[in-house]
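Posting for a labmate who doesn't have an account.
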Amino acid sequence: MARKRRRETTSYEKLPEGCHHYDDIGDVPWDIQKYFHQRYSIFSRYDEGIWMTDDAWFGVTPEPVADKIAQHLADGTPSEKAILIDAFAGAGGNTVAFAKSDRWKRVYAIEKDSQVLACAKHNAEVYGVQDRISWYEGDCFEIIKNELAEIGEYAVVFASPPWGGPGYRTDTIFDLSQMQPYSLTDLLWPFQQLTGNVALYLPRTSDLRQVTQSHHREGKLTVIHYCMEGASKALCVFYGSFNFSDSDGAMMFNLALVALGFISSATVIQAALFYAYTCDGCLCTAFQSLDLGIDGTCTNLDNGAAAIGISDTD
């Protein structure tokens, strides 16, 4: 089926400084060309006039993943929670997905970069959900503390922070204390001052020992890997009173017993449930290598440890 043509206004409309809509690969900076090739996975309606800054390409959640996260939050969040706060809205990938779910009375989107925020607002218009979103420009921690404190009882915080820092792309297990500019502790503590329901979108190789050690409340964490095209794209850690089920019949694999096969640390097992979820019907090959029997036992652990972010030497 042919792609929809981009909206006519974008052909002559002057875009805000720093915002772009690339049509030709020859105009795309070399370091984001691979993301441009994936543009329809990032925004399926790209040709309708999606705007991006050059830096925003690196951080946008692919639309199938954003939609599944939005679905899980919509289905698994307690009914009294009616407000979704997207703490790092970026160019709007997750924000748009949350608004599309029609679950939330209001979506509050925070972004400190004015150019990226302009893109996010415009992209919400492309998807027709701009009226469901309230936008804030500035530091998410200050805005949550000073402007949104009164709604914490009714809110869920979703945060897809920058993943900067040494080792993000090269380390087998990523040290979340070295994530820049915000470590795991920097993120979690202020969000949990507002609400007990927090979802963090983190690198797929995140050290889950650090994740579980950050959990100091009753109940187990839920950790879900989101997979596309045979690879885990990232994971979400859900803190608080979420209740997930595979209600839509898609492939979701419980990896808790898998972890028992190669983790000696009881803290990890007792504190979290692990899942892998495919957004396009193709599970991460590392998870496919885990030969799960009917009783949940695991007989092949060659790739699983690194895949879920725990060393098999622990």
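Reply:
Got it, the structure tokens are right above this. The radius of gyration is 19 Å.
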